[in-house]
Amino acid sequence: MSRWIAKNASLMLLSLLLAFFFWAVATEAEDPTSTMVFSPAIPVEIRGLQEEMTAYGAESARVRVEIQAPKSVWDQLQVDDIHAYVDLTNGQTGTRMVPVQVSVGLEPSSVTNVTPKEIEITVERLAEKEIPVSVRVQGNPTMGYIARTAEIAPQVVRVRGPESRVSRVTTALIVVSIQERQNDLRGDYEPTLVDANEAEVDRVESVPKSVTVNVPIIQWLDTRDIPVNPNLVGQPAPGYRIADLEIDPQILTVYGRSDVLASTTTLQTEPINYEGITQTLQTIVPLRLPTGLFVFSAQSTVTVTLTVEAIRSGLTLEVTPTIRGLAPNLTATVGLDTVIVILSGPLASMDTLDPASVEVTLDVAGLQIGEYTITPDIELPGDIEIENITPQAVPIKIEAYVPPTASPDSPN
After folding, report:
1. pLDDT tens for residues 144-177?
2. Which of 70, 153, 230, 299 is close enough to 31 for a disulfide, judged by CB 3.0 to 4.6 Å?
């Protein structure tokens, strides 16, 4: 038996090789292998970093991974199955290029290429120190109020991060605004960690992350908001009226003696004479402030705008229409005696309007024998308007002119 095996060993080996070959060909036909770049790009992890160290540079790093695998693996492959990482177990500090390694969680598969093959990583020792908190208050409270010194809790925070960054941090800066406030400003704020030039230092964090700031705001004068009342003198020209009155500002903040503040309900202006005006008047006028009262402004004036418009009136007339443009060989008969005309306009114009001057004409120029409806024409002064005409079209009949026949008793 052993002699037979020895004699046929080469033949058996050849059979095994042929069997494996045909199995591989059959497998490849059923589950073909392909090499492709996986999409999307894979984020790079940091592994092996010692506890007292920190690394940066890979926060946004991503790599493209080319993989060779059968179709059955490609059909199942997900982002979570691929891990790209850099190994920092050697503990070396400084900035250097570190190769990117990739592992694939599904088999059979192999990584054929990684782009980029290495990334720049900076490794530093972790450092901590305490720094003071500084609050910068911007703006001013409402007139009559003042801000006290800001209260901070805690007044010191601990900053933590890479040693080179921590060494630059000098202050935890908080900026708040108290513009136009009348009460305390209180809240929790995340400080900005800055260097001696107040430039923000990145890759560091403060512990605690937020600081409580309170800016007391107190009233230092008796103040009140009092409306402004313009002192108007006169009347517009006859036929005109005040359509609108605007005051800017309408309310002013004043301060002064408590008794005067308590008794003052409005702020009067100097007289504004609008006698006989026919158009809008805008004027800047001083205030008449009671003794002991003062305004929080550069000057004690307000802007008053009086909008004036003409008073309008109406008039209804019955007018007999007249014919215009009739050919000499024709005659026309109007189907009604009068039309009703409703007019409106400024009172002064309406008062001087002579009703007899309002003519309603029917223009029949170019018309031949027949029956028509004609739209009346009315001419009026420019500031008087026609509100309505009834009817809006007048029936008219045009016939041939027949001279009157002489009677037998007429003298020759």
Report:
1. 788 999 999 999 999 999 999 999 999 999 999 9
2. 70
- The mean pLDDT value for 182-208 works out to 95
Q: Is 406 contained in some domain?
A: no
**Residue 101 lies in domain:** 33-116
How many Cβ atoms from other residues are within 10 Å of residue 71's Cβ? 11
- In angstroms, the Cα distances linking 193 to 122, 161, 198, 209 are 21, 11, 8, 11
Are the beta carbons of 296 and 253 closer than 8 angstroms? yes
Which among 161, 159, 157 is positioned nearest to 203, based on CA atoms? 161
Q: Where does 211-311 show beta strands of DSSP type E?
A: 211-215, 217-219, 223-233, 240-248, 251-256, 267-273, 281-288, 293-295, 301-310
Check which CATH number belongs to the domain holding 103 and give it: 2.170.120.30
If asked whether residues 99 and 163 sit together in one domain, one would say no
pTM score, two decimals?
A: 0.49
pLDDT given at position 40: 92
